[in-house]
């Protein structure tokens, strides 16, 4: 922009400035949210686009985008170089290329299975139409396709299971945590139990849960098969502790001034909990929930592996049992999938926390 | 009447006319639907090539043709599979022939399991580690080409076992289940070579009393890994796990079960007696579909085997590489690396009346349970017969086969109609002993190693008899 003496209208300059200011405030506002979703590197790019000098933003950009990308690149390069040097009985450990190829083939298998399902339904239509035509309408049956679950199906199953287990855990842990945070007696009673059960491995719970669920949950429904309930309960048993402990801590450390004020106002207990306790302890509760979800996801894969319940864990175990030349690559695809999903779940919780809490320290 | 309806009718009429024309040349094949009581079924299987009839019946639509909607589910191990059938989570399963018999007589989990369909003949092998192979090779006579002479007797391994014993190392071997074909075959082979595989007793179910070779249970898919880890020095297992050892260069198959006992029965399809009694038509429909699948597998001199291999190599079935599965399924077997020999009958699914549940097959398994002390008390020949008849159900098989003959899928001579359920005395065992299913006790008398007559195992000694 060259300044000329022909006299630029100061109004336009001011308006321009104001627009620019608005743009920057908008960018600064959204910066918080973008970083929540792990998109922090977009901020310097936006600032550049909005007309900030590239130099001042470069440092920020290098830190938030170039450095992580370099890390990933170095890892992939090291993997590609080192993997072929480890020879297992299933052949060399597959490198990034082989794994990418296997990921594609898993997708193809998923598509092929869907096509088979479509064929099945088409055949069923034909058969039923034939029966109708022969006047045997009473023999017409509509059945679901009975194929094997694909990789995508297994991911969905695992996500459903972890969600179910996590919801159970939250329903149990939050009220208990609030109670033990409010009352020293409850806290004293729960504390030894928490200490004893917290370190128990999911694999130790599994046989017990399997037996109990098999005995009590007799009429399994289609929507909630036994295997899913078993896995979900194992997830619950292992993932409720972080939520419980953090909730108790959050409730116990509510500002004394607030509790005193509510005493003066003689707030009823329910109001006291909902208006004072919950809002002030939310940040810590969410920290607990985040930890719980992470633990739950980790536990679920192990539980599925051992109990052969449908899901990603079973996929890994089945591939290990198959022992074909592509098995290792498929297992590595699964490992990466598990990692990425775990990361996304964590981000999701982080976003929820950001949405629901008013604290400045995230 | 619409045009569409009219044309459809004409087409149907034309089709009918053409089929009646063809039927004078070939058989018209049409499945008559049975009125099945339960049409959504779940069957379990273990990842082994001999589950092929199930995979084929599903993939080729034989189950669907009978109006059955079947889900096939791989199981972690034989125990889980059996429990699944007993608790009703599974409606039926690919089982070891010994499982229904053992469950019915109450060895292990007690439950009355029956089998109307035998799944295959042969299909197993015995593999030893490279180390053991190198040590036993000098004791094996060679043929004209300098290759080891087959069948290889366990006698060649005896000095190796002695060496390990002298060094204070127990000679461990793996098999897949205490009542598995593999356990009995491995024991048969060891005993025929003068190596004692150990006895079972009611208070000691390790099966290692008086043993020179110590047998323990390892799930089939883990066999190669366990061998590689040095936990065991050899194992007996179904395919593809013997060929896998050659491919990976971690072991050498020394003998196939075809050479231990020619055309021995291997797996069966098991269901609870309760299920069979409550769902007679469903059972018939299942057996019909399985017979069709077995026939497809052996048709035109194994012409369909490559397609079957492709099916089996899918990850939801066996999942091993197609070339590994193909080795045995297409009639060759690789012993040492590069020593590939033809074993055309390594996997038999339909020839030689393979699918017919013979009482004599059941009797052989029961006789081996008695031989090694799993049946601790002496039993009369009539007891053997009663148990065989309560578990093996050729009546159901024949009914299903009769329907298939009527529908044109089978010919009369493909089914041993009119047999009394006992095969003629079988002579082709590695040790030359003859087996007559009508006299199991007389059969047991012929073995130098093993319980016979009134003998029992007490503590660590054989008493009585």
TrEMBL record, chain A:
A Pfam family that the UniProt record links to this protein: BPD_transp_1
Gene3D superfamilies xrefs: MetI-like
Keyword presence, Ligase: no
Coiled coil (residue ranges): none
Principal localisation: membrane
Cellular location(s): Cell membrane
Keywords of this entry: Cell membrane, Membrane, Transmembrane, Transmembrane helix, Transport
Keyword check for Disulfide bond: no
TM stretches of this protein: 30-49, 61-82, 162-182, 232-254, 284-306, 327-345
Topology of this chain in the membrane: Multi-pass membrane protein
InterPro entries reported for this sequence: MetI-like (IPR000515), MetI-like_sf (IPR035906)
GO biological-process terms attached to the record: transmembrane transport
Domain ABC transmembrane type-1: 155-349
GO annotations of cellular component type: plasma membrane
Family: Belongs to the binding-protein-dependent transport system permease family.
Protein known as: Nitrate ABC transporter permease
Species in which this protein is naturally found: Acuticoccus sediminis
Lineage: Bacteria, Pseudomonadati, Pseudomonadota, Alphaproteobacteria, Hyphomicrobiales
From TrEMBL, chain B:
Chain ranges passing through the membrane: none
Superkingdom of origin organism: Bacteria
Keywords: Cell inner membrane, Cell membrane, Membrane, Signal, Transport
Protein name: Nitrate ABC transporter substrate-binding protein
CDD domains per record: PBP2_NrtA_CpmA_like (cd13553)
Compartments where found: Endomembrane system
A single Gene Ontology CC term: endomembrane system
PANTHER family per UniProt: ALIPHATIC SULFONATES-BINDING PROTEIN-RELATED, BLL4572 PROTEIN
Signal peptide: 1-28
């Amino acid at each position: 922009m060259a300044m000329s003496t022909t006299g630029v209208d100061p109004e336009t300059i001011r308006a321009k400035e104001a627009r620019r200011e608005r743009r920057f405030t908008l960018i600064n506002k959204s910066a918080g949210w973008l970083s929540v979703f792990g998109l922090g590197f977009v901020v310097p790019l936006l600032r550049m686009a909005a007309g900030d000098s590239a130099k001042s933003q470069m440092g920020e950009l290098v830190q938030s985008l170039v450095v992580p990308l370099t890390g990933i690149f170095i890892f992939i390069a090291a993997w590609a170089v080192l993997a072929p040097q480890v020879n297992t009985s299933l052949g060399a450990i597959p490198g990034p290329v082989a794994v990418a190829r296997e990921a594609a083939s898993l997708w193809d298998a998923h598509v092929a299975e869907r096509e088979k399902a479509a064929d099945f339904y088409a055949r069923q239509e034909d058969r039923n139409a034939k029966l109708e035509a022969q006047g045997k309408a009473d023999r017409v049956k509509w059945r679901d396709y009975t194929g094997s679950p694909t990789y995508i199906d297994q991911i969905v199953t695992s996500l459903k299971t972890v969600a179910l287990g996590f919801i159970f855990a939250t329903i149990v842990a939050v009220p208990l945590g609030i109670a033990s945070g409010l009352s020293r007696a409850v806290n004293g009673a729960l504390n030894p139990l928490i200490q004893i059960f917290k370190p128990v491995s999911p694999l130790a719970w599994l046989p017990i849960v399997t037996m109990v669920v098999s005995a009590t949950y007799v009429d399994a429904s289609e929507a909630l098969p036994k295997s899913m309930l078993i896995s979900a309960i194992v997830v619950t048993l292992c993932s409720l502790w972080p939520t419980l402990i953090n909730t108790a801590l959050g409730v116990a450390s509510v500002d004394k001034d607030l509790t005193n004020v509510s005493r003066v106002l003689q707030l009823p207990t329910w109001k006291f909990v909902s208006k004072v306790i919950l809002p002030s302890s939310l940040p810590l509760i969410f920290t607990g929930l985040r930890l719980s979800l992470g633990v739950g996801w980790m536990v679920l894969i192990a539980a599925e592996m051992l109990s052969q319940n449908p899901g990603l864990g079973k996929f890994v175990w089945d591939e290990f049992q198959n022992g074909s030349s592509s098995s290792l690559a498929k297992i590595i695809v699964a490992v990466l999938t598990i990692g990425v999903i775990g990361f996304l779940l964590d981000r999701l919780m982080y976003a929820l926390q950001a949405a629901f809490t008013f604290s400045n320290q995230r | 009447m619409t045009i569409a309806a009219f044309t459809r009718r004409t087409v149907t009429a034309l089709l009918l006319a053409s089929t009646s024309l063809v039927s004078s040349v070939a058989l018209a094949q049409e499945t008559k639907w049975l009125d099945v009581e339960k049409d959504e079924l779940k069957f379990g299987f273990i990842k082994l090539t001999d589950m092929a009839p199930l995979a084929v019946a599903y993939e080729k639509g034989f189950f669907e043709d009978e109006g059955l909607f079947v889900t096939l589910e791989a199981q972690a191990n034989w125990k889980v599979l059996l429990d699944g059938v007993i608790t009703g989570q599974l409606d039926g399963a690919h089982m070891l022939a010994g499982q229904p018999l053992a469950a019915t007589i109450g060895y292990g989990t007690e439950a009355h399991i029956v089998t109307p369909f035998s799944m295959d003949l042969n299909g197993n092998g015995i593999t030893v580690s490279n180390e053991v192979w190198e040590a036993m090779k000098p004791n094996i006579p060679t043929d004209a080409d300098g290759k080891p002479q087959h069948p290889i007797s366990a006698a060649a391994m005896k000095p190796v076992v002695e060496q390990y014993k002298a060094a204070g190392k127990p000679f461990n071997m793996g098999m897949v289940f205490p009542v598995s074909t593999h356990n009995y075959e491995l024991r048969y082979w060891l005993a025929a070579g003068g190596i004692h595989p150990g006895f079972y007793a009611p208070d000691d179910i390790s099966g290692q009393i008086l043993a020179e070779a110590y047998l323990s249970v390892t799930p089939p898919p883990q066999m190669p890994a366990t061998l590689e880890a040095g936990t065991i020095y050899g194992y007996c297992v179904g395919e593809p796990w013997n060929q896998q050892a050659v491919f990976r260069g971690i072991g050498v198959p020394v003998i196939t079960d075809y050479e231990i006992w020619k055309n021995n029965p291997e797996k069966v399809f098991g269901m609870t007696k309760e299920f069979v009694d409550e769902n007679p038509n469903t059972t018939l429909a299942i057996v019909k579909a399985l017979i069709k699948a077995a026939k497809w597998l052996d048709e035109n001199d194994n012409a369909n085997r490559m397609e079957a291999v492709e099916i089996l190599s899918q990850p939801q079935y066996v999942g091993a590489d197609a070339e590994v599965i193909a080795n045995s399924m297409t009639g060759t077997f690789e012993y040492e690396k590069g020593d590939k020999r033809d074993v055309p009958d390594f996997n038999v699914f339909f020839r030689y009346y393979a699918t017919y549940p013979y009482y004599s097959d059941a009797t052989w398994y029961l006789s081996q349970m008695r031989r090694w002390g799993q049946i601790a008390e002496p039993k009369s020949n009539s007891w053997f017969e009663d148990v065989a008849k309560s578990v093996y159900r050729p009546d159901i098989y024949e009914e299903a086969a009769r329907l298939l003959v009527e529908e044109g899928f089978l010919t009369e001579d493909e089914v041993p109609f009119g047999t009394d359920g006992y095969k003629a005395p079988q002579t082709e065992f590695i040790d030359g002993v003859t087996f007559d299913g009508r006299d199991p006790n007389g059969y047991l008398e012929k073995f130098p190693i093993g319980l016979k007559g009134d003998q029992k195992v007490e503590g660590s000694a054989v008493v009585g008899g």
